[in-house]
């Protein structure tokens, strides 16, 4: 974010603060609020913290008219412009300036600890942002100074991509499953679409051959008709009767 000197943002506003005259520092241990006349503040009014670019400004104004009483420009925090006392969290020592190069140190006190906490956090957050902006600017400067990596294709340059381990699907899709229904496959010796002959087929052929031979034997007597188990049935009995008549008459008939 570029610095804009014309834009001023508001960081914190407290409607009531107190200003104290402070004695010179007696030692390097820091200031103590107990040395001030806390029950006799030199001034009371409103405090604002504003920011313009990287700078922060602590402004003390009249709560009724808004007239500026004093101002403390802050370049960094913590620093020499704002210093906390050693014996309380509600009092600070700030260095104010009049714009002509003159400065003075005054005591600043808050009636509530929450107000002093907000004052402290507002300054910390602003200068934390200033630090991050500075680091980002340095990073951008270093990246712009470094040579850029050119990953574009040159004229006539090609690229080859090898994709492995890809299985082709069957053209016919999934294999058709055999129809169910509980039917067993045919035995190995059977023909497709045929019906196996019954086990008694050979006996039937033998019976037909024996009956045919009996018809060709003219001289022998043919037994009476057999039960329905004989495949020739009435044909055999008819042939037998005709043979007997032929013998009696002396003629041979061929049937």
From TrEMBL:
<dbReference type="InterPro" id="IPR012466">
    <property type="entry name" value="NECAP_PHear"/>
</dbReference>
<keyword id="KW-0653">Protein transport</keyword>
<dbReference type="GO" id="GO:0030125">
    <property type="term" value="C:clathrin vesicle coat"/>
</dbReference>
<feature type="domain" description="NECAP PHear">
    <location>
        <begin position="7"/>
        <end position="164"/>
    </location>
</feature>
<keyword id="KW-0254">Endocytosis</keyword>
<protein>
    <submittedName>
        <fullName>NECAP endocytosis associated 2</fullName>
    </submittedName>
</protein>
<keyword id="KW-0813">Transport</keyword>
<dbReference type="Pfam" id="PF07933">
    <property type="entry name" value="DUF1681"/>
</dbReference>
<dbReference type="GO" id="GO:0006897">
    <property type="term" value="P:endocytosis"/>
</dbReference>
<comment type="similarity">
    <text>Belongs to the NECAP family.</text>
</comment>
<comment type="function">
    <text>Involved in endocytosis.</text>
</comment>
<dbReference type="InterPro" id="IPR011993">
    <property type="entry name" value="PH-like_dom_sf"/>
</dbReference>
<dbReference type="GO" id="GO:0015031">
    <property type="term" value="P:protein transport"/>
</dbReference>
<feature type="region of interest" description="Disordered">
    <location>
        <begin position="218"/>
        <end position="255"/>
    </location>
</feature>
């Amino acid at each position: 974010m570029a610095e804009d000197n014309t834009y001023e943002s508001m960081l914190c506003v407290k409607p009531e603060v107190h200003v104290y005259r402070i004695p010179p520092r007696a030692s390097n241990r820091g200031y103590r609020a107990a040395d001030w006349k806390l029950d006799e503040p030199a001034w009371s009014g409103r405090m604002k913290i504003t920011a313009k670019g990287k700078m922060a400004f602590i402004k003390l104004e009249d709560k009724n008219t808004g007239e500026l009483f004093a101002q403390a420009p802050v370049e960094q925090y913590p620093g020499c412009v704002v210093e906390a006392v050693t014996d309380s969290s509600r009092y600070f020592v700030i260095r104010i300036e009049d714009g002509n190069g003159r400065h003075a140190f005054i005591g600043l006190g808050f009636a509530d600890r929450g107000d002093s906490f907000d004052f402290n956090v507002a300054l910390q957050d602003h200068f934390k942002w200033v630090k991050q902006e500075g680091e980002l600017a340095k990073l951008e400067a270093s990246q712009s100074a470094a040579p850029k990596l050119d990953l574009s294709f040159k004229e006539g340059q090609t690229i080859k991509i090898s994709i492995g381990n890809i299985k082709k699907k069957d053209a016919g899709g999934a294999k058709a499953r055999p129809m169910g229904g509980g039917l067993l496959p045919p035995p190995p010796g059977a023909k497709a679409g045929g019906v196996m002959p019954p086990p008694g087929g050979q006996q039937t052929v033998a019976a037909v051959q024996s009956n045919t031979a009996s018809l060709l034997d003219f001289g022998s007597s043919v037994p009476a008709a057999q039960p329905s188990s004989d495949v020739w049935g009435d044909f055999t009995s008819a042939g037998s009767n005709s043979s007997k008549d032929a013998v009696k008459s002396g003629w041979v008939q061929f049937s």
